[in-house]
Design a protein that fits this description.
Elements (H helix, E strand, L loop, with lengths): L11 H12 L2 H13 L3 H29 L3 H8 L6 H34 L7 H13 L2 H19 L2 H28 L4 H9 L8 H14 L6 H6 L8 H29 L8 H12 L5 H34 L4 H20 L18 H27 L3 H8 L8 H26 L6
The structure holds phenylalanine.
Phenylalanine (PHE) binds next to helix 1, helix 2, helix 10 and helix 14.
Protein name: Transporter
Family: Belongs to the sodium:neurotransmitter symporter (SNF) (TC 2.A.22) family.
Pfam families: SNF (PF00209)
């Protein structure tokens, strides 16, 4: 009975934008473009595509399968597919991972929101290397302001999710994803008009296989995973809202390609400007929060650009967080019988309370910056355990489950939409990669990320 009232997205386009909204996140704006540049440009892109093909896509299709076939949250789905079995742990890991990611992601998103506000106020006019550093330090160390911005972020995400799947997630992603594209393209055009922009393009697009190391291959693999929101039930949950005529393989390919396009476009917006002003392209949040204001403040109309840039980053972060929180909301409404509103409020408060630990430990001079668990502060621990341990384990379990526990006929039936799609070759290819390639690669990544296997 309950399943009949379950919402779905209203169209294929809605499915696409919601899923892309999950994939596109903070990773596209600083992490991916930087990795492209630092690992041999187009050579890294090629490796990334192979990782998407051999690991990302098979896991994404599998998650969509689990979600749409059962029309349930990640724990409910596993319970339905294999009642009373340990496979439920895929769901349990997913829920834990969703919390861990939310604890630190809301904190970083809080800094982004704060930077939108600061850019609008004009705080960055005349900024220097020192003042830019100092501003970022103050924004991170706080202690009050990062917590307040983290709560604002959670309030925005909660308000959208309370509206529901169609009126909340669908409406917001359908409106904001095109806006995000438009904003990136505006930033790109401006960046390309800068004198000396070709150096930045060279950084991004040179093909240099000699810069590829084993480490960069592993990085590409891990990135493909985090970028496409895999291994923790997000795509199971969104898949459970997909329309019944959606071509799951096709959607996966389109989302992976569009997500990569966003990363490349973000790189084009960033690096020409960074090089035009003779700055070093740094990795991590430093690039986003310290370098970008500095670079854009030197461009005519740079402040408007800065506002647009941080708005687009906050859109990316917000739509990604919606998909993580929705994993929890679907679980609490369906398995625990909470109303949607109660589930959202309860989870938002819980995430805010524990998330404070991330906000107060993000920097070594933060109030809790010196507390270490297994040698890591809270912020780093949440990040490390979720991205390096739980997501690859989740992905591996999903690959093994789908490849060895589900009958191929059932898979064929669902992926071909009950025989209405004539895509046997794609299903066969998917099944082969899923069984023989993805699990092996995932084991290697996992052992490496926890330090057992050293390259
Ligand atoms: N894909 C998002 C990003 O690139 C992060 C994310 C991970 C979202 C896991 C949902 C689930 O930032």
């Amino acid at each position: 009975m309950k399943n009949q009232q379950r919402e779905t997205f209203s169209s294929g386009l809605a499915v696409f934008f919601a899923t892309l909204g999950s994939a596109v996140g903070l990773g596209n704006i600083w992490k991916f473009p930087y990795m492209i540049g630092a690992n041999g440009g187009a050579a890294f892109l090629l490796i990334y595509f192979l990782c998407v093909l051999f690991v990302g896509l098979p896991i994404m299709v599998s998650e969509f399968y689990i979600g749409r076939k059962t029309r349930k949250n990640v724990i409910g789905a596993m319970k339905q597919l294999k009642p009373n079995s340990a496979w439920k742990s895929i769901g349990v890991f997913g829920i834990i991972t969703a919390y861990l990611i939310m604890f630190f992601y809301t904190c970083v998103a809080g800094w982004v929101y704060f930077y939108v506000f600061k850019a609008i106020k004009g705080d960055f006019s005349g900024v220097t290397v020192e003042s830019s550093k100092a501003m970022f330090g103050a924004a991170v160390v706080g202690p009050i302001s990062p917590i307040i911005w983290q709560i604002i972020v959670l309030t925005v995400v909660s308000a959208i999710l309370i509206m529901g799947v169609q009126k909340g997630i669908e409406k917001v992603t359908k409106t904001l994803m095109p806006v995000l594209f438009l904003l990136i393209i505006i930033c790109d055009i401006r960046a390309l008009m800068l004198p000396g922009s070709s150096e930045g393009l060279k950084f991004l697009f040179k093909v240099d296989f000699s810069m590829l190391t084993k480490q960069s291959i592993l990085m590409a693999l891990g990135l493909a995973f985090f970028k496409l929101s895999l291994g923790m039930g997000t795509m199971v949950t969104y898949g459970s809202y997909f329309t019944k005529d959606n071509n799951l393989i096709n959607t996966s390919v389109k989302v992976a390609l569009s997500d990569t396009l966003v990363s490349v476009l973000a790189g084009i917006a960033i690096f020409p400007a960074v090089f035009a002003f003779n700055m070093k392209p740094g990795a991590g949040p430093g690039l986003l929060f310290m370098t970008i204001p500095l670079v854009f403040s030197k461009i005519p109309f740079g402040n408007i650009l800065l506002v647009l840039f941080f708005i687009l980053t906050s859109i990316a972060a917000t739509t990604a967080m919606m998909s993580i929180l929705e994993v929890l909301i679907a679980y609490f409404t369906e398995e625990k019988g909470l109303s949607r509103k109660k589930a959202v409020i309860f989870n938002a408060i819980f995430i805010a309370v524990i998330g404070v630990l991330a906000s107060l430990s993000a920097d070594s001079s933060s109030i809790l910056g010196n507390i270490k668990i297994f040698g890591k502060g809270f912020f780093d621990l949440f990040d490390f355990v979720s991205s390096n341990i739980l997501m690859p384990i989740g992905g591996l379990l999903i690959a093994v489950f789908m490849g060895y526990m589900v009958k191929k006929d059932e898979i064929r039936h669902e992926l071909s939409n009950h025989g209405t799609l004539n895509i046997d070759w794609a299903i066969n290819l998917y099944y082969f990669i899923l069984r023989y390639i993805a699990p092996v690669l995932l084991i290697i990544v996992f052992l490496n990320s926890i330090g057992i296997l050293k390259f």
